[in-house]
Amino acid sequence: MESRQGLTERKATTFLEGKIAVAAALRSPYRTVHQVLVRADRQDRTARWLQQRAREANVPVTQVSATEIDAIAQGRSHGGIVAEAGTRRYVDLKELLWPENRPAFVVMLDGIEDPFNFGHAVRALYAMGAHGLVLRPRNWMSAAATVARASAGASELIPTAIAASVEEAARFYRGQGLMVACGQRENAAPMDEADLTAPLFLLIGGEKRGITRSFVKQANLRLQIPYDREFAPSLGTTAAAAVLAYEVMRQRKKTLCRP
Fold first, then answer.
1. What digits encode the pLDDT tens for the residues 13-34?
2. Could you say which of 3.30.470.20, 1.10.3720.10, 3.40.50.300, 3.30.1330.30 is the CATH number of the domain covering 4-85?
3. What is the C-alpha radius of gyration for the chain, rounded to an integer number of angstroms?
4. Whole-structure pTM over 0.70, yes or no?
């Protein structure tokens, strides 16, 4: 068995933790998994299932001690399963326009300051059918283990591109015919009254910094999440991402069901 020192000396190594994150990485075309490490005393159905997935992906499985797993893992919720993988690969902005016969839905997350919030937001966007994610060069994907756990593996599966700025991303997608929208509380249309069935680039800002005024002014559409009671604090980024993405999905499914 390769020593831990040998493992960590591999160039650009990332460790992913837990069954769900590791299984997602094995399915993902965006990261190479070098090997899966399973705690030697795990002989249950979950461990056998994961080992089968690894074999199908031609990834070796190595049984190691609990001490070895704990030394590699950052958290304690790994369940005795860790994958050694390469760095996350990104795609070009144009590759997020992939859906055939479906209007594109691309989301940029900007300014989120907590990797768990970032992961939960990605999880919601992926579940609601976003076709792709755009990030700045410095982003939480570097905290792969935390983000993969928080996103239930969605961060490993959603196609992701990098843009130097929100303006660059918006300029590109506007040029491709997408409507540029952002979440905003003031001077905005209630999301359920806006038409979100057209090709869409949606910017969601972080809790503290939000979205710059200059970007808000140039957006084609500003979306407000309507509340059912007076409530001064806005929803956090994770909840806002989930609600906005759900509305996009709801409208598009409703359109598809029309005779």
1. 889 999 999 999 999 999 999 9
2. 3.30.1330.30
3. 20
4. yes
